[in-house]
Structure formats: C-alpha cells, structure tokens
Amino acid sequence: MELVLSEYHQHRQEEFRCFADSELDQDHQFPHQNLIKAGNRGYMGLPIPKEWGGAGDDFLTYILMLEEVSKVCASTGVILSVHTSVGTFPLLYYGSEEQKKRFLPNLSSGKLLGAFALTETGAGSDAAALVTTATAVDGGYVLNGSKLFITGGGEADLFTVFATVDRSMGRTGITAFLVEKDRPGLTAGPPEKKMGLNRSHTAEIRMEDLFIPVSNRLGEEKAGFMIAMSLLDGGRIGIAAQGLGLARAALEFTINHLKQQEHAGVNTDQSSAFIIADLAAKTAAVRLLIYRAAMAKGSGKRCTREAAMAKFMATDLAMEAATKCLDLCQSAGCGVDNPLTRYFCDAKAPQIYEGSNQIQRIVVARELLSQKNLSQL
Ligand SMILES: Cc1cc2nc3c(=O)[nH]c(=O)nc-3n(C[C@H](O)[C@H](O)[C@H](O)COP(=O)(O)OP(=O)(O)OC[C@H]3O[C@@H](n4cnc5c(N)ncnc54)[C@H](O)[C@@H]3O)c2cc1C
Q1: Domains of the chain with bracketed CATH
Q2: CA dist 29 → 75, 76, 338, 360 (Å)
Q3: Is the entire prediction scored with pTM above 0.90?
Q4: What pLDDT was estimated at residue 3?
Q5: What separation in Å is there between the alpha carbon of 11 and the centre of ligand 1?
Q6: Does the annotation mark 354 as catalytic?
Q7: How far is the CA of 147 from the centre of ligand 1 (A)?
C-alpha cells in the first residue's frame, strides 16, 4: 500500500476509517442519518471542486472514502457512489453554467440526492436498446417510459434520465435530461425486495407525459449515450471500492473468528490457512488495481480498461471472500443477523450493476484485441 498512497492519502484513509467505524449505523432502514453525517463532513461532494460547493479532493481520496464506508455499510457505500459518480458528475462534466449553479452546490452538500436512470426492461447490458421517448414540444420535451432498478429510486431528488428523441437512430438518438423528483408525471414504485443491499432502495421510476424544459436537457441533443458511457468508467471504480470494502470486511471477520478459535484451543488447519492467505493476497492485488484506476481517472486519462478490470476483479473477490469465509466460519457466520451473512448477500448486486462483470470482461478483451502494442499488459 505504501507503494501507492501518499502521506496525505494515508491520513485521509485513517479519517474515513474512524468515521465509518464510529459514525455509521447499520440498521435496516434507508440510511438517512449516515448520509446527513457524510454530508456534514463534505463526503457527499468529496471530488467536486470547491467553487461548486464540493470538498475539492482528488478521485483517489473519494475512492478511499467509499472503500471504508462500504466495509461497514455497503448500502451507504453504493448510495454515495451513485450519488457522486453518476448523479453529480453528469452536471460537473456536461452541465451548463446555469444548471451547475442550480444543482451542484446542493448535490455537493448532500441537500439533494442524485440518481442515474438508464436501465429498462430489455435495455440493461444493451443500454442503446432503451425505448423511453423524449418528444420535442414547445419549450422542451415530453418524456414517456419507465426505468428499472434505479438506485435511490424513491428517495433521490434529481435523476439523470436517458431517453431517445428518435428510436430509429439507436444509440445516436439518446439524450440526457435532468429530472427533479417533484415534476408532475414522475412516479417511483416501492423499493424492490432484494437479496442484499436492502438499505439502498432500488425502485422503478415511471414517466408519464412528463414535461421537461429545454433548460433541463443535459448536454446536446443526441449526446446522451456518450454521456452515460463516459460516466460509467468513474462509477465502476466506485463499485470496485465497494467490492474491496466488502471483501476486507468478510476476511477481517473470519480472521478474528479463527483467532478466537485458536484462543479456545482449536488450531487453524492448513486448508483454512491457505484460504485466508489466498484471499489476503487477492485483496492486496485488487486494492492496487483499484488505486491505479482511480489515479488514472483522477489525472484525466482514459481509464475504461482499468475501471472495468478493477470492477470485475473487486466485486468477484467480494463474492468469493464472502462465500469462502462462510465456508470457514460455518454456523458462526450464517445467522440472519450475522455480518458475514450480510456481506454474502450484499456482494451479489455489485457483480451486476454499472455493467455486469461478464460485460466488463468483454470490454477489456475487446480493447486488448484491438491494440497493436501490448507492452502495457
Ligand atoms: C441493486 C441494483 C441496482 C441498480 N441500480 C441501477 C441504477 O441506479 N441505474 C440504472 O440505470 N441501472 C441500475 N441497475 C441495473 C443494472 O445496471 C443492470 O441490471 C445491469 O446492467 C444488467 O442488466 P440486466 O439486468 O438487464 O441484465 P442483462 O443485460 O439482460 O444480462 C443478463 C446476462 O446476459 C449477459 N449478457 C448480456 N449481453 C451480453 C453480451 N452482449 N455478451 C455477453 N453476455 C451478455 C449479462 O452479462 C448477464 O450475465 C441496478 C441493478 C441492480 C441489481
């Protein structure tokens, strides 16, 4: 770790660790209190420039915060990640001055919660197949359609919604819009009953003859697909940090359990030792992959491959660690209220959202197969 983190980053990492350990609650409700506490400390707008109400920190610092928060509460981790990476960055990167003034300070402070609405029935991995329409009318657009599995669905204040102005154009017809939660015509369904991450509400949002003024269009008409894809690189590094936090939590729980066993006279057998050592080595490797991706993103470099690699490696590791740790702890880990059970249940969705891990592998392979120079492998 010292290979990567500066003194400043180590200091901030310690601060985030203390915050997560001492301030975050883990009850079963939507974590309003956690978000208020995070907002009070500037964590809702950590990588947003100070001129827009953010803390002006670098992307790596933001990723360190997500890792520590997710280790304690992965639901709060994904809410913070979505709010920032794909809920606030759209405005920072593509918003007009007027839009930035209207929304950014409140998003940065946490007064507003941001969300990202791309997925539809039949348009998940293939986002270009979306069918929500934006029909041009006097002064703006009318949106009709519905979006599925939207993080923050019933709780968020501002949605970046993707809709097509011309279905025959496929991805080139997609346009992005800023939709406030109180716009007439917008409704949210109840939170989905998921296997994990239940404190992070995920819901359908429906748009019925929803009028959006031109002043709420984000970027140029038909630039929406490019906007969505460009945001997801950063988003995936956040989800990777969530995976790393979960993997560390499972491993820490299990090592402590084995220590207690040894204390009680039960020695750790060799096969358990191998599992612990393998998981610890993979955790260390994944951490470097994530920090590398975060530094590339922070320096403004294209980081599609780095982000995809970090995302699938870290979230697969979270699932592997939770599964193997449950194998090791057995009855000491599998109660409904046991943290290890929670890590196991929470680890599945991160393999799916912000681009499934199968799709991330395709992204990496495609990029490699198109390159002449493989010296950076
Ligand atoms: C908890 C949760 C929160 C979410 N939050 C949001 C959110 O805030 N905003 C949002 O817009 N979406 C959100 N999503 C949706 C998520 O991004 C999609 O579920 C995801 O992109 C996968 O899409 P899908 O579920 O339609 O699966 P599909 O795209 O139907 O995929 C099914 C399977 O087919 C594979 N597959 C599909 N296409 C290919 C291909 N071309 N080549 C190889 N394999 C392929 C996939 O990898 C997968 O294994 C969320 C999902 C979950 C579970």
Answers
A1: 7-109 (1.10.540.10), 114-222 (2.40.110.10), 225-369 (1.20.140.10)
A2: 10, 11, 17, 31
A3: yes
A4: 62
A5: 36
A6: yes
A7: 12
